[in-house]
Amino acid sequence: MPQRSTEDETMMEHTTISLTPEAALKAYDGVNLIGGARKTSAATLAVTNPATGKTLGRAAAADAAETDAAVAAARAAFRAARPCAPNAGVS
C-alpha cells in the first residue's frame, strides 16, 4: 500500500466533515439521493438507537420505481467513469 505524504494528510484534515448520526439523518430525512438529486420518498422507516430505543430519524424507503431510477443512475455514472484512467484528476 502506498505511503501517504504530508500533503495528503493536510488535505484530508481540511476535507473531513464530521456529522453525528442524528445530524446526518436530519439532513437526509426521508430523502434518497438519485443521480445526484435529492428525491423525497413517499415511504420512510424509523431509524432507532438499539441501545436506547430512541428514534434518531427517518430513512427513505425506496419503492420499486425509485430503486430502478437509482440503479439506472448508478449504471450511467459507472459507464461515464469507466473510460477514465486510474487516478485521473488526482494531482
Q: How would you sum up this structure, described in words?
A:
With 91 residues, this protein is of the alpha+beta class. It has a domain at 19-81. 38% of the residues lie in helices and 21% in strands. The protein contains three helices and four strands. It has helices spanning 6-15, 21-27, 64-81, and strands at 31-34, 37-40, 44-48, 55-60. A two-stranded antiparallel ribbon has the order 1-2. A two-stranded antiparallel ribbon has the order 3-4. It is flat. The model has no long low-confidence stretch (mean pLDDT 79).
Q: What is shown here, in short?
A:
With 91 residues, the chain is α+β, with helices and mostly antiparallel strands. Helices cover 38% and strands 21% of the residues. It is flat.
Radius of gyration: 18 Å
Give the H and E element order.
HHEEEEH
User: On the 0-100 scale, what is the average pLDDT?
Assistant: 79
Helix content: 25-40%
Largest sheet descriptor: 2 strands, antiparallel
What characteristic shape results from the CA principal axes? flat
Structural class computed from helices and strand pairing: alpha+beta
Low-confidence stretches: none
Strand tally is: 4
State the end-to-end CA separation: 18 Å
* Strand line-up of the largest beta sheet: 1-2
Q: Give the oligomeric state.
A: single chain
Q: How many helices?
A: 3
